[in-house]
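ESCALATION

Customer reports they have been waiting on this structure for their group meeting. Please prioritize. Original submission:
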Amino acid sequence: MKVIITGTTGMVGEGVLLVCLSHPQITSVLSVSRKPTGITHPKLEEYIVKDFLALNLNDPKLKGYDACFFCAGISSVGMKEAEYRKITYDTTLHFAHALAPNPGLSFVYVSGGGTDSSEKGRMMWARVKGKTENDLMKLPFKHVFAFRPGFMKAVAGQQHLPGLYKKFSWLFPAILKLLPGISSTLQQVADAMIVAVQNGYGKKVIEIKDIKRLAARAQQP
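Update from on-call: job pushed to the front of the queue and completed.
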């Protein structure tokens, strides 16, 4: 399987990238990011794109892949709705269209817990992410999944970690044990993405319990 991963210089994207590079069934990875990952690997090719909204809808570099794991994103803290919508909704949908949606390609969008599928709630970020999920699911991909992970433990070897994560990472063993309903590992998230696009799943919105269920399948012989 050949995959595209965005947001590879962020925590989620980098974790998914590292898992994919080590996965025996992933033969090729295209990182699409605004800056280099700093990783060298025979499976990895990098495509530096400063503005995703400037991507050509017929970009040949985006063709020939089986799945896209869209891990790019930004916090809504301190942002106006118009600005957040441009980055979260407009950029994601433009990138999805640039892939030329077709039945041979799957799209996984990293959303967030608490996303508002009704698009009518009070929380701005939740409405925007809800609309993003809903409109992606209207596109003619083979599969579209909206992953809603919670707290995540990083993959070994990650370099692009938020300062708060580094400060409180020592708490993760306790969080994973005491709060399993809101936490998982990034290894589980990446494994779940791979299994979902390979085999499908009965739900399009993937919550933490689904992530763990899918990840467990990855460990089965």
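Sent to customer with the following note: The chain has a mean pLDDT of 93.
Escalation resolved.
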